[in-house]
Amino acid sequence: MSFITSPALAETGYVVLAPHTSPIDPAEWLDLDYVGWRSSGVTRFAPLASYAGDIECNGFWNHTPPRTDKDGVWIASQTEKAPTLTRLAQEPGANVGRCRVIELQPNSYADAIYNLHQDDNNRLNEDGTGWVVRSFVNLTEDTESMLILREDRFDPATELRLALPAGTRMIVDTQRFWHAVWHRGATPRYSLITSLTSGPELDAYISAQHGDPHAESVTLDPALVEEAQVELHRRIEERRRAFEAQGIVMEPPVELY
Ligand SMILES: [Fe+2]
After folding, report:
1. 59-87: pLDDT as tens digits
2. What highest taxon heads this organism's lineage (predicted)?
3. Cα(135) to centroid of ligand 1, in Å?
């Protein structure tokens, strides 16, 4: 398979861009229509672009006819309420697939580690076309929270932790990384997540926004990390047994939405 990928993401699989510094009216995300859609943790989603312009979050490959995560249809009733968010999603000039605001309730580090998953952005993607990656804009001021990225799901030595103050912008190959957010706030975290197609437009945008593939990783107490590893394996085993009791073989947690 030879997809078009971004050279800027080749080395580490992510870049942190210059932050978005002008304040955005919280009404742009609070007034949107949300759908209950369980992702990594306790979440809801407000789609801005979907398969056919409806307020739903299903993967484009789960519709008829199925397609990959490209050519999302903007939802006028949502984008009218969120002009800045819509502009931020469209700003790279790359093809947009799914675009939505995610609302995540506070969780623990151990929860986040258990929630680690790889996205399925490139299902049905055609060889020779652009690889789909994700952009994130953190909307709420979550300085104590972090996006956790692991090359190896079970190896904390491969872990990178990117802090999430308001306006943090990142582009991540979320199909490469095991990822989840540890949200330490008392109120929900909101983030704009957009599926973008790799290509010259995205490359130019990353360059113009000073994409940094070596951002600083938040340091954590090794004891906390070790405890979470133990808890991860305990929960996986607990889940495996529950599935086994129902005669189901547990699949790895690949995101299907
Ligand atoms: Fe994900």
Report:
1. 999 999 999 999 999 999 999 999 999 99
2. Bacteria
3. 11
